[in-house]
Amino acid sequence: MPKYYEEKEEDGRACGGVREDLRQCLLESPCVLQEKKSPKQCLREGHCRSLQVTFFACKRSMLDTRARFRGRKGY
């Protein structure tokens, strides 16, 4: 189960769960903790790639008119 659902308050924004998990993944990555790089730099280097793709798919589904019937992707 994603960390977002464990003892967290509900984020009213779209794709909030994926956004929170992506942020936590970046902040806990060795790139940020040991190499002292910014989360933005670590994201460009490819850390937490699967969550980044999921977040992109969720944001893209908001613009898709078919999403009214299918629902947003992500969680």
TrEMBL record:
GO annotation terms (biological process): mitochondrial respiratory chain complex IV assembly
Keywords: Disulfide bond
Ranges annotated as spanning the membrane: none
UniProt xrefs under InterPro entries: Cyt_c_oxidase_assmbl_Pet191
Entry's Gene Ontology cellular component terms: mitochondrion
Protein family per UniProt: Belongs to the PET191 family.
Role noted for this protein: Involved in an early step of the mitochondrial complex IV assembly process.
Protein name in UniProt: Cytochrome c oxidase assembly factor 5
